[in-house]
Amino acid sequence: EPPGPSIVTSEIPGPKSRELKKQLGEIQNSDAVQFFVDYNKSRGNYICDVDGNTFLDVFNQISSMPLGYNHPALLKAIQDPNNLATFANRPALGALPPVDFVESLHTALLSVAPPGLKQLLTMACGSCSNENAYKAVCMWYMKGKRDGREPNEEELKSVMINKTPGCPQLAFLSFMGGFHGRTFGTLSTTHTKPLHKLDIPAFDWPVAHFPKYKYPLENHVRENSEEDEKCLAEVEDLIEQGSRNGKPIVGLVVEPIQAEGGDNHASDEFFRNLRKITTKKGVAFIVDEVQTGGGPTGKFWAHEHWNLDNPPDIVTFSKKMLTGGFYHKEEFRPKEAYRIYNTWLGDPAKLILLKEVIKVVKKEDLLTNIATAGSQLLKGLQQFEQKHSHLIFNARGRGTFCALDFVDAAARDRALKALHMKGIHCGGCGSKSLRIRTALTFQVSHVNIFLDRLSQVLNEG
Amino acid sequence: EPPGPSIVTSEIPGPKSRELKKQLGEIQNSDAVQFFVDYNKSRGNYICDVDGNTFLDVFNQISSMPLGYNHPALLKAIQDPNNLATFANRPALGALPPVDFVESLHTALLSVAPPGLKQLLTMACGSCSNENAYKAVCMWYMKGKRDGREPNEEELKSVMINKTPGCPQLAFLSFMGGFHGRTFGTLSTTHTKPLHKLDIPAFDWPVAHFPKYKYPLENHVRENSEEDEKCLAEVEDLIEQGSRNGKPIVGLVVEPIQAEGGDNHASDEFFRNLRKITTKKGVAFIVDEVQTGGGPTGKFWAHEHWNLDNPPDIVTFSKKMLTGGFYHKEEFRPKEAYRIYNTWLGDPAKLILLKEVIKVVKKEDLLTNIATAGSQLLKGLQQFEQKHSHLIFNARGRGTFCALDFVDAAARDRALKALHMKGIHCGGCGSKSLRIRTALTFQVSHVNIFLDRLSQVLNEG
Ligand code: FES
Known about the structure:
The structure is a homodimer. Chain A has 15 helices and 16 strands. In chain A, helix 3 (72-79) runs antiparallel to helix 12 (348-363), helix 5 (101-109) runs parallel beside helix 12 (348-363) and helix 13 (366-387) packs parallel to helix 15 (444-460). Chain A has helices at 15-25, 60-63, 72-79, 84-88, 101-109, 126-146, 153-158, 184-187, 194-197, 221-245, 268-281, 348-363, 366-387, 409-421, 444-460, and strands at residues 46-48, 54-57, 119-123, 171-175, 207-208, 249-254, 257-258, 264-265, 284-288, 314-317, 324-328, 392-398, 401-406, 424-425, 427-429, 433-436. Chain A is 39% helix and 14% strand. Chains A, B: Belongs to the class-III pyridoxal-phosphate-dependent aminotransferase family.
């Protein structure tokens, strides 16, 4: 790992990145490209661009790099001749799994399963993890409704032409500010920015408000707890409306921290009550840990912070887990073959890498590392927000999964740009938040570099 | 590659596979598992199971292995130290592409682009390729409707709660028997088996009938061409109904050969007319080449057999292409960043492998190989259907992408089982079809082995 960031061009993206971006623009819209990366040269917490710049990476490919770049354990696994066939031959996992598949599921995924969940399906990305979790919920609900009866003629015929009763009008409840993917099903539960959804047909599914807190939390306990109650009452209300309208809400999906939506947090108490309401109403409780899962909050799963009596019904994952998938309670297991199915159902090559990640996380106790580094980081952010209260506020976070808000989007974007020029690669989220998404190997020494550069930017801005 | 198949257990799956299947069954439904595979030992057109059996593979992981197992060119690419970082660091491609990304798109994907299509997006599987193709069509249609006007307040507000006008009621037309994926959007265009769709909410999108031909084709020219016309008239009719109902059909999606639905073929003339109707009506013409693309029909893209004047608007791919994605005309390129977007947008590690595949296909002229092997194969199947006309019929195919029908599902399933015991791993599709899906390296010598074993099965059955 390099000793620190180093910027050699006078603009980011530099000339080589700009040229490549132009070339890519001839094939596809390349407006979202930040720079082109030299992945060979990138190491640990440092990402190197094609123009010779080295950035401390506190964004990590939208939070999807568990151990940073080119971790030796991963390089070794890829070069291990025993793993060669796994990289060369991607199987149709549901039909022809490899000899070590059961063992891989145990080592890579069940060894870190959320408390209480022992059933598991692998998928290939966050969107299909959520899409298939929703499908499992629909099947569970309708199985309950049929109560042992086989599907009848009318159901089997209508389903082929997208009609009720075979395709029932079931609904999922999601939160304003939530992000669960961009395929048609998950997009109907995503409510981040209009441009994510505009022009795309949606299921007419309801949306509840997610708590909006006043910070610092300790000074607004009463208001924030009233906010929780208002939002919980709305959830109950929408569930009851759904039953009355004949569009029953069969599942509720929520992120432990609304990430794309602006790093919106809610209290552990709020989530415990959500779990209680869903249990009471017979609604499946789906926790989307695509961005929070895998350690960045200081626990392997962010929902472990809540101390639930009754685990979530389904926990979905992807990103830092390298493979997609979901854990679920026994009741959500489809009875028939081929009901939750697709060609690949994930990729054992990603399981090989995940196995190594889990080994390193355990051996090096990276969850403790993240808790320590995270508390230093948050303390620093809180000091800054006191000093620069005209510019930034709402410093918040768990582990290194931290964020702060700027007065407006323009100020946030200026800060991101200024950080770039000081060798920090960071990301935005929501309308005016800066979000920090580190690898699990991010240490106090990295925190110090980050805080130093951020303070320079804030002092200048 | 082994000299031929070899079966050493008295049952398939053998004892080791059965034990592993039981163990997997404790974690997830494992009923669809056929056997557990030793991917280290499998070679070329031969797949080896954990019990020591070796099968000639004419199914190839649901048609997703372009060069068979452990092809030396792929093994070499995985071991190449220059590629190590690509396997170790999966980027967020839309934001931080690798230095060689433009070059990879050119070498791996544009060098085999369907005639007339020069724009391209990568995705990670067939479902998200189709989901995002549909989204690109919706954006294209609404951009046209807004005719330069910026989205208004009402659109930007309603879209956040899944309502019109922001989420407009646009529809896609698909065919009975078509399969385009199992996520919520694509599932509304999939019409194969009731269990694929049962219990899952669907968009109320229409379905047209796909031609059903009488075989052998040369004896039923008039009936089959009448069948074409009936189906085309229905398509026009449904498009007109959509406009009248305020649920305009904005795209039509079709497979060149309906694969999961039973290997249903339609004439080149039928597809040319579909293209004409969609052009006339302003409906996007999406050709789903997820299963047919990449060479198995003897052309790189199956729709090249049609000799269209006007290319499809969108061609989607996955499986044999190792990466998902879609090619499209310039008009379907989203104008704004982040509209067609997700974390990974594919995987450059798959592009490395695809580059090698394309090199081998070109160097060894594997398309010609498939055309030659395929014509031998189809000739053989046609001879069998004459000899066993009480049992099998409708032998059909293009390249080695061949199929035949049995009198019923039970007879088909018995044949698949008997073939297994003779060392042939083959698949079913539709209700009573046997489908052949070879690697591109399948040669006349393999055809002869397959036909020999099939003839034994037919003679016994
Ligand atoms: S939808 Fe997840 S990989 Fe395609």
